[in-house]
Amino acid sequence: AYIPHTPEEVQIMLSKIGVQNIEELFDSIPKELRSQDLPNLPGPLSEWETLSVLLRHSSQNKPLHNQVSFLGGGQYDHHIPAVVDALSLRGEYFSAYTPYQAEASQGNLQVFFEFQSLICRLTDMDVANASMYDGATALAESVIMALHITGRKKVILSSGIHPDYKEVVQTYLANTEGVEILEVPFLSQRDNLGSTDFQSLEKLLSEEVACVAYQTPNFFGILEDQPEWVSRAKDKGALSIAVIADPHSLSMVSPPGTYGVDIVCGEGQSLGNPLSLGGPSLGFLATKKDYLRKIPGRIVGETVDQDGKRAFVLTLQTREQHIRREKATSNICTNQALLALRTTIYLAALGKDGFANVGEICFQRAHEAAERLKALPGFELPFQGEFFREFPLRCPCSSQEIYNSLSQKGILPGIPLGQFNSQYDDLLLVAVTEKNSPSQIEELVESLQNWSH
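Given the sequence above, the corresponding structure tokens read:
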């Protein structure tokens, strides 16, 4: 209904480019991959009829504010101060698109600059870029960055990294000639801490390894031994990459930069961005000053204009749209600027003390929940390692069975981990935020008592 071209105009355009019909434009797609017949689609609808259909479908959604949620796994339900929506939804900011005359958009550039500064303070690193797509692609870009810096071809990933992140890295490097991805076993059989087995890491390390990547807290919520990771990588001349899927952990745990990590990447959704059917999300990447020119994306810098006033510029633009392709570090395009803005407002609104307070509440309530849950007959904590606010709970039956039952009652007890690996079929990954009140924790404990034995 909104296509403005008449059939005659379409034919003129096709003739101009030398094709007979629109179908010829798709000749590059193999015929076996093209649908010959459209499915049984309904007829055209008016605007109101279309809206009615969408409203009917959307009514099937189950918003988290109507449920008790202990979901996590890299996406967390935190309180978002009202000021975040009030400022980020202003018309001058309500777009993630990159201005092509960047210096004419001083407001946007200042936001990016402040975002970079805050990420550097969180991670204790020298420089950060103006955001990435999400945590998974931030890791993939970090690995590619390490390959370029070292000129080596082997990559070591901890098994404690989020399974989705590892798959994205595999996808990014699938057609990269000569690159080999190795994985360190996750469980340490010696101490059952739930962290990476460093004996296995040592066997994989060599002078051919470009980087080693670990996540802390890891996918199971356990804190990794960061100094050990960094020192072992450094001994072989490899770069160390720290993945932070839960940035609120940095409110209580020493940042990776403290230990000399080379690259820090991660997920920023929980910093002022809501959970919304799995997205949109926000990635961040920070590194040492030595690797400034290898960082993907864009970096905003501070300067002064001709009148001596504070001003902002795009200091580095290493994406292939801006410079020669062979000189580009990445083809990352429009970034998550709106979400980066929300993160900037969120962190500024909370301040150092407020951010620490949120982390402390998460820590205390998570450990209270863990103590209560492991006291239930048939339930236990499988790992002995330290955790921040997320932990796996071993159940007396399939965790998926428990989830299916409780979710029907409006309680989301955690993530059933059997979907990632069948050996974890009885594990439930439980995450606690400041929004989980003591009464909600009590409700979870009482609900799980039905499976105790």
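Residues 66-79+353-451 form a domain with the Aspartate Aminotransferase, domain 1 fold (CATH 3.90.1150.10). Try to locate this feature in the token string yourself.
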